[in-house]
Specification:
eight-stranded antiparallel β-sheet, globular
Length: 146
Amino acid sequence: MTWKPTNTNDVELVVSIVERDESGTRTGKRKIADTAAVVVEEFSIDSEEDMEALSGIGNAEARGISQGDVEHSFSFNIQGEDAELFKDLASDDGRANELEIIVRLEDYRDKLIGAKAGTRSLSGSSGDSTEYEAAGIFTKRDTGDA
């Protein structure tokens, strides 16, 4: 396999709101951010699985590994004044909207399913761009074909 370094400027990040009908069935999605239109300063996607070595009296080394819950999290910072995007991360009652986030690199794609941005922050400093930070969790990760 050939090593292909990917510059972060080549990464595409697309954030969409998942639309559902009254019964909870997914009916589509509406794109609210695309790095072609917004400036994403940084992002991270993390998955962590709780694991514990199984050993006991008379076992100097582990006899196995207990696998627990898998937790997925994400965060990204957007620069500039894109108030629509920031507003769309939550519904009118202030609760986080369900999101679908797609990250594309040269030969890699990652789709975050069931994402909710529980942390939404707006900040700014004199002379700098305003920044929106979104961070949260998601329920499933699909790393299908690029």
